[in-house]
Amino acid sequence: MKQPFWLFAALGLLGTSLTTYAAEDIAQPLPPIEQRITSLGALNKQAPARRELNIQRWQTAEGARVLFVEAHEVPMFDMRLTFAAGSSQDGTLPGAAMLTNAMLDEGINGQDTTAIAMGFERLGAQFNNGTYRDMAMASLRSLSAGEQRDAAVRLFAEVVGAPLFPEKALARLKTQVLAMMEQHKQNPAKVANQALFRTLYGTHPYAAPSEGTETSVKALKREQLAAFHSRAYAAGNAVIALVGDLSREEAEKIAAQVSARLPKGPALAAPVVPTAPVAARQHVEFPSQQTHLLLAQLGIDRRDADYAALYVGNRILGGGGFGSRLMEELREKRGLTYGVYSSFTPMQVAGPFTISVQTRADQSEATLTLVRQLVRDFIAQGPTAEELARVKREIAGSFPLATASNADIVSQLGVIGFYDLPSTQLEDFMKQVQALSVDDVKGAVARHLVDEAFVVVSAGPTVEQKPLPTPVTEEAAKPEAPAAAESPAQPEAPKAEAPKAEAPKEEAPKAETPAPAPAPTAVSK
Fold it and tell me: In 10 A of CB 502, how many CB atoms?
């Protein structure tokens, strides 16, 4: 039985396909070793080279926007369709976006979900899909040889453009979603995250869980999903990203074929701009050994001029893992947590800035006080010159990974197209990062973060509080790991619509907030 997309995302499973190659292909000699391996010493402390992208753009007759990069290194191509069809478009039907996307490959004319899956497998192709708060996506990876390519594109176009939403499949998916919701009730990170979004966004569409609610999911009908598909999966609401072993003519043909099979209609409007909430503190009583702490305030939309400066500032504060200020002070010096994280999640309209940490319940209040003090200091003082130089080097060194594979590139193209960014966005981002001064980062952080504006949500038991341990110096012994009965997990953050990353990484169409990438790949949620 086919499992829904959200279950595979939760388990971190990736599909694979097997391809048979001719013996003469396998027997081809490899280039000399000196042509295949670059010595690290030869880099002379410079960042490794990044693939240059020639992004070609056009629009189909039905209004779909297309971005294409020709890449003939391997005989495959990747295609990703991104729609402004996330949960922010649910309106009065919470969960409609998620179920509509999950039902795409449950049945088309003449084929049920098993036949669809077997069809892609037989062609050596992969189909994936997902939804976030801003966007929904569907993607295809296929061999570029004409026979396999044409058949895979035909099947993909039918799945995305003309799903049947069979009643039995809908009932099965509803049962699975409701079971997932019951599991979430036992997860303090999920409980806290949902409370945070309700408090932060109030009546705004971003406030609702992407999967809907128990009441709304039970009430959704097949006809409502079909109507949502007709409106939100229209060609005028789509971005088609193509990367791989295709000529411009072949790419135009594929884009035209897919676009023509989609419903006809215009692009949907972005959600309204949210209103900043009043600072608040909320505690959710939960029977656990640890307390989950979430702090948030409204951040930026994806086109904000301070994006690069805030990206760098966040890496220094808490988004860069080990070496970031929050990690240094909470984990390295005091052993309060396994991990503490901060992130801006830029979306179509102001996405959240969040800080998340899980720590001992009896030290949660002191930990919260410390986090707020560290943020207050960072807003007032900004980064040091050494911190800025280090993060610039890290971004420059990891930036080539943003275009290391066709899958990475198609994710980037999806984000660029969805947020209507310039084709030179990747190069512009790197130039902006490297040009930043300490005052630039300090100013951007001060413009967008206000210590008194945080919404704070905690989930855990009410227990007597203890003071923080004395911080250790670098020369002291390694900090003691926090005693915990549960395995700490990073609370879910809204996905930007990156494409995981995206997703996008806005929602990264990877999960709504994919891990920060060196390049702008986020997916809204």
Answer: 37
